[in-house]
Design brief:
This protein is α/β, with parallel strands linked by helices. Helices cover 44% and strands 13% of the residues. The protein is built from 20 helices and 12 strands. The strands form 3 sheets. Strands 1, 2, 3, 6, 9, 10 and 11 form a 7-stranded mixed β-sheet that branches. The radius of gyration is 22 Å and the shape is globular. The N terminus is likely disordered.
Length: 453
């Protein structure tokens, strides 16, 4: 989506947030436990046994197969599955319906980075009123943290993307390299790859991919964004972890050891297929993308843990993932809550989402099962890569937050940090410019920027 459309989406959402925040005179408004429960588990189950039609917006491929399992178990509930567009395209339509007061679905897929905007506008339901506190133990700690905003729970975790390193075993074997265990080793391997082939790179860094850089900053210990309350946020793109990331990657870009090229286009996939890029740093959802897009590379890939800043204290980060939220406009909130919970926590449903849709699970039950961990990925040479991904999930560093205008922040990334990447590597300067644009925008929309921003 173009910058102007993303900015318009963020502005509309923030306008809604200003109108929908809890009354400042009531400090407990909107907080977990501040209102009586809306229903019990028995009430939700009863609603699922009543003739009902729910509209569900989702762009997940093959999710209709999992929805069909739900309809088999609860035949009185009909799910109207609608693909309203992916990511920001869906959010634009969603915020239009919210602003109009009608037309929103009962349930919608919302990525973690966008969820705070809808939560602070009261556009989605705080699931604490429906017993969400008792669901926490079903999900990984990092997934649950990403659906929690100001102590409210505004979505059911659907999938996560713990980061891993996907490398070309044929390239590494030819050069006598091992998968780098630390970032120092990563830099050394990058030099060796460049020496062997001046046109080759250890990987690329996308000047337009704010999410990818966010994940690397997260893994480096940076926590640049924080929501302190409904109206106060903090932005600090010069904290120690962010500076650590910038120092390393500025050198990699300056020395042309990584390619400042956009991802997810034909040229990039061709580079992945040819071995121009020796590895890809991405979420655990990546194997499905590689297999479906460049099937001719079967057997050449392997997975390994992310390089570490401190080899004795492994830390990971998430890269991607979505929740399923219940819209405040829903006329059938009990059934909607029941559907959202079943879809993302029922063992049969979670297995279906993993096998049919390629979603990396957010539930502990599947992550910890021998069935999942011991599966051999044929495309990855029979490697039991899920063990690596599950361990990475358990090591995700805590405390990461997204801004309530992260969609806008992401839209101006390419004009700030992205320009620094494309221009040769002054990433500290790019981060400073990004912070200036983010904080200026936040103040214009009525947010208070906390000290340190």
């Amino acid at each position: 989506m173009r910058k102007t459309a993303l900015a318009a989406l963020a502005l509309s959402l923030l306008t809604l947030a200003a109108c929908g925040q809890p009354d400042a005179a009531d400090p407990g408004a909107g907080a977990a436990g501040s209102r009586p429960p809306a229903a019990t588990e028995a009430d939700i189950e009863k609603a699922l046994q009543t003739e009902t039609t729910l509209t569900f917006w989702s762009w997940v491929p093959n999710i209709d197969k999992t929805v069909a399992l739900f309809e088999q178990k609860y035949p009185k509930v009909k799910i109207n599955l609608v693909n309203a567009g992916q990511s920001a395209d869906e959010y634009t339509k969603l915020q239009s319906a919210i602003k109009a007061g009608s037309g929103a679905p009962d349930v919608a897929q919302i990525e973690y980075f966008a969820l705070p905007q809808f939560a602070l506008s009261n556009a989605v339901v705080d699931l604490n009123r429906y017993g969400a506190a008792s669901w926490k133990g079903l999900f990984t700690e990092s997934a649950w943290a990403q659906v929690t905003v100001n102590d409210g729970v505004y979505g059911v975790p659907q999938d996560t993307g713990p980061m891993a390193m996907f490398y070309r075993k044929d390239v590494f074997d030819r050069l006598g390299l091992k998968p780098p265990a630390t970032w120092d080793e990563f830099a050394a391997a990058a030099k060796r790859i460049k020496q062997d082939d001046p046109g080759g790179f250890i990987t690329n860094v996308d000047p337009g991919d704010a999410g990818g850089v966010d994940s690397l900053i997260w893994q480096a210990g940076g926590r640049p964004f924080a929501i302190e309350n409904a109206t106060t946020v903090r932005v600090n793109l010069a904290d120690e972890g962010t500076k650590r990331w910038a120092a390393l990657w500025s050198g990699l870009v300056r020395d042309k050891l990584v390619d400042p090229a956009a991802g997810w286009n034909d040229a990039w996939w061709q580079g992945m297929a040819s071995g121009k890029y020796a590895l890809w740093l991405a979420g655990a959802w990546a194997p499905g993308a590689i297999e479906s897009t460049i099937p001719q590379t079967k057997g050449k890939w392997r997975a390994a843990p992310m390089p570490q800043w401190d080899a004795n204290s492994p830390v990971n980060a998430e890269n991607g993932g979505s929740s399923v939220a219940v819209l405040a406009q829903s006329e059938n909130p009990l059934a909607a809550v029941g559907f959202a919970k079943w879809l993302n926590s029922d063992p049969e449903a979670v297995r279906s989402l993993n096998t049919n849709s390629g979603l990396f699970p957010a539930t502990k039950e599947l992550l910890e099962s021998a069935e999942f961990r011991d599966a051999k990925l044929e495309f990855f040479g029979g490697q039991q890569a899920n063990k690596i991904f599950a361990e990475a999930s358990a090591q995700v560093g805590q405390g990461w937050q997204y801004l309530p205008f992260q969609v806008y922040a992401n839209s101006v990334f390419k004009d700030t940090v992205g320009q620094a990447i494309a221009g040769g590597g002054d990433l500290a300067g790019g981060l400073s410019a990004w912070q200036e644009q983010i904080t200026t925008y936040g103040r214009q929309q009525g947010f208070t920027l906390a000290a340190g921003s």
